[in-house]
Every structure is written in structure tokens, then in C-alpha cells.
Inverse folding.
């Protein structure tokens, strides 16, 4: 078991460089093996989810050349197996992207049902509906999803609700289907656009990504390319809220400010100063924080992946705030942990009512999932005393060198590798 040991109370000040977007990179890696020529992906985040997917691609025979921590060259011509088993992929949700990628290229695939964070029901029914519309037969049994088609044919597909994963999966399969595909009520998230841009640079014909209607003309084959992943808007937002919680001043670099507009708007509402540059955002929290209301929505609305982080900040803001979670029903599992640090939060269904307190106090808490784990770290940085965050394997899934980046901003945070090591780290951060 690994932990973070944190001594709170230091304002975070300085600059932080944001890495590539994990969610875009996972889909991009799956898309890359749809070509029988080498595809180089740059600006990969060096995090556990990426490494697990690369191992899975290696297991099915794809050529995986890790040029450096943030660059990989993939060769899909050597794939020898179309079965991605549970052991290869059980730790991450993005396994389902291999369904659309392998189905598009080989017209069949078998992938274990995905794992990942337990933040609520994330059924793959929309994925299945879309792949069936393209002509695939789908079977789910023994924990595996099997898809097969003699031929994929373009179709008009209406998404019953906005789904990033299903939009990307259908888009990948349709890019190598015969004829035209139209996806209506498509997800507009930046990583949908990023994957479409990658596929287009490989020779696909996709128009409309970033709008709610995506049009695809299928092609017979895809070719080599070199592509750089967009910056991670959730990592960026996490540091922006860390500035707010600690009364800090952080320049968040290597970002696309447009992708952060919903986050920036809420920070301004609660009393922070947000200054935008071409590829950076500066957050200054020099005034008392105020309450607000937040509803999570698909992009360009407020992202569900930023809900725990703003909740932590509102927990020490003046007044009563209301958070409505409209995406995942189990996204408030961190509330009990935050209560151990002094937060006053009441959850009723998908709504959290937050009464701001003067301060958090250090406690032993456990990360229930990736984003909530990062939020608890923020709480620890803002708290009086020492906080120990357990189960940080969730955080390591999606944040590269998280503790190192925080230390460079003035945080007193250390990673412990065992229970015995926790005591040593407590002395170090004191």
C-alpha cells in the first residue's frame, strides 16, 4: 500500500507544467493500432492507466516501442490476437476502446468487460447499440464482449444520451466501415476532437467532431502519422483548485484555456482571480472564498471529473453551496472521508449541500477513486496539521509525478511505500 503524507498550511505558489490528457491518450493508443504502418504518439502522460493499456497492446502482438516516458511508436501490423483478456485490462475502464478499434480494422474483437474507478454505473449499452448499427453481432458472456461482422456498413446513429466513450468507439469503427456514418447527439469533449484529429491525420474522413453531429466517410485503410496529445484539462483544473484551497498563486502552463472555461468561471464566481494567456492560466486566491452552486454536465458544461475538487474548496468557503451530480451516481463517496477532516456536507441522492467551515484539520483518509483521491490531497494541503491519504494507487492512475509537482509549488508532501514509512515521512514533512 502507498500513501501520501501531507503537512498542510502552505500556500501553493509558482508554476506547474501540465501533461498530456489521459483520457485522450487512452483512446488515441487504441486508434493508433488501426493502421498497419507505424504511428507515433507524443505528449503521453506517464501514468499507470497508459502503461496498462500499452502492456495490453503488447500482449496482443502490437509493436510497442517506448521511445521515452512521453512518446511511443506503435505498429499495428504485427497484431496476432484479437482477444484482450481480463488480466491484461482489469485495472482500467478504457479497455472498451479496443472493441471499436479492432472491430473497425479486423471486423472482430473480444475484450474483457472493463474495470476502473467505481464511481457509478457506466454501462456499455450505447457502445453496443452503435456497433450493432454498423452491422456487428455482439455477444456478452463469461465476462467478455465479443463483436464480429462480415462487413461494417455506415449508418445513422442517434445516441440516447451523451457518452464520450461510446462516441469515440463508434467513431473508430465507423472510420473503416463502408459508406457514410452520422452520429447524432455525439459527445463534444476535447478528447473526442483529439481522437478525430488523430484518425484524420491517419487518413480517416471525419467531420464535425466537437459538435453534436459527427459525419464519417469510411476508408479502406489508415496510414502512419505522428501526433501530439492535447493537455489534460482535469490535471490543470486540479492544480487550479489547489491554488484556491491553499490561498495560493499558481501559473498553470501548457494548457488550452478554452477547455478550462467552465472551471475558470466557477473559480471567478467564488472569489479567485483567473488570468488567461495563450497556453497558460494563472489562478490567484487572495480574497475570502464565497459559496456557489454547481451542476455537472457534459462538455462544455462543468466536468464531473472536477466535481470532488470544487467540493473540497467550497467546504472551506463562506456560506452554503450546492453540488448537483448529473453524470455518475456514486461520485460522492469521498464525502465521509472529507467529514473526517471537519467538512460539513450532507448528501441527498445526487445533491450535496455544503456548509463552509473555517478550516480542515489533518486526518487519516482513504482515496475512493482517482479524482476524489486528488481532491483529498488538496484538502490535506489546505488543512491544519498532518493528513495521510491511503490507497493512492487510484491517484497514480491519472496524475504524473503529482507529489513532485506539488512540492515544486511549496507543498509539504511525501509518498510513503509502507505503514512503517508513514512515520518517517511524517517527520520529514514536519
Amino acid at each position: 500500500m502507498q500513501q501520501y503524507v501531507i503537512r498542510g498550511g502552505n500556500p501553493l505558489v509558482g508554476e506547474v507544467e501540465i501533461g498530456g490528457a489521459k483520457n485522450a491518450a487512452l483512446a488515441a493508443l487504441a486508434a493508433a493500432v488501426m493502421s498497419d504502418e507505424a504511428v507515433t504518439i507524443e505528449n503521453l502522460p506517464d501514468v499507470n492507466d497508459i502503461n496498462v493499456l500499452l502492456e495490453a497492446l503488447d500482449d496482443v502482438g502490437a509493436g510497442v516501442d517506448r521511445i521515452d516516458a512521453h512518446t511511443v511508436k506503435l505498429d499495428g501490423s504485427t497484431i496476432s490476437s484479437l482477444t484482450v483478456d481480463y488480466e491484461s485490462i482489469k485495472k482500467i475502464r478504457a479497455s472498451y476502446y479496443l472493441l471499436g478499434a479492432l472491430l473497425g480494422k479486423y471486423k472482430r474483437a473480444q475484450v474483457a468487460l472493463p474495470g476502473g474507478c467505481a464511481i457509478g454505473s457506466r454501462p456499455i449499452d450505447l457502445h453496443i447499440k452503435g456497433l450493432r448499427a454498423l452491422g456487428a453481432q455482439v455477444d456478452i458472456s463469461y465476462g467478455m464482449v465479443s463483436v464480429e461482422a462480415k462487413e461494417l456498413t455506415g449508418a445513422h446513429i442517434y445516441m440516447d444520451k451523451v457518452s464520450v466513450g461510446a462516441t469515440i468507439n463508434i467513431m473508430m469503427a465507423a472510420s473503416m466501415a463502408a459508406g457514410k456514418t452520422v452520429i447524432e447527439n455525439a459527445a463534444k469533449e476535447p478528447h473526442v476532437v483529439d481522437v478525430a484529429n488523430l484518425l484524420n491525420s491517419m487518413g480517416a474522413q471525419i467531420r464535425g467532431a466537437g459538435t453534436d453531429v459527427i459525419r464519417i466517410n469510411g476508408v479502406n485503410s489508415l496510414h502512419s502519422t505522428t501526433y501530439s496529445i492535447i493537455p489534460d484539462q482535469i490535471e490543470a483544473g486540479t492544480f487550479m483548485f489547489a491554488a484556491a484551497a491553499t490561498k495560493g498563486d499558481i501559473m498553470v502552463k501548457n494548457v488550452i484555456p478554452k477547455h478550462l472555461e467552465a472551471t475558470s468561471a466557477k473559480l471567478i464566481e467564488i472569489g479567485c482571480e483567473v488570468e488567461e494567456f495563450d497556453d497558460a492560466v494563472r489562478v490567484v486566491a487572495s480574497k475570502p472564498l464565497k459559496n456557489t452552486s454547481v451542476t455537472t454536465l457534459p462538455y462544455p458544461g462543468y466536468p464531473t471529473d472536477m466535481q470532488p475538487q470544487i467540493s473540497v474548496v467550497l467546504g472551506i468557503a463562506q456560506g452554503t453551496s450546492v453540488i448537483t451530480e448529473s453524470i455518475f451516481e456514486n461520485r460522492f463517496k469521498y464525502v465521509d472521508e472529507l467529514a473526517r477532516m471537519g467538512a460539513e456536507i450532507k448528501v441527498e441522492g445526487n445533491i450535496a449541500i455544503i456548509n463552509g467551515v473555517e478550516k480542515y484539520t489533518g486526518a487519516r483518509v482513504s482515496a475512493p477513486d482517482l479524482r476524489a483521491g486528488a481532491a483529498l490531497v488538496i484538502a490535506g494541503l489546505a488543512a491544519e496539521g498532518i493528513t495521510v491519504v491511503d490507497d493512492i494507487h487510484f491517484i497514480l492512475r491519472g496524475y504524473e509525478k503529482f507529489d513532485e509537482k506539488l512540492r515544486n509549488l511549496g507543498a509539504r508532501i511525501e509518498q510513503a511505500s509502507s505503514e512503517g514509512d508513514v512515520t518517517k515521512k511524517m517527520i520529514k514533512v514536519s
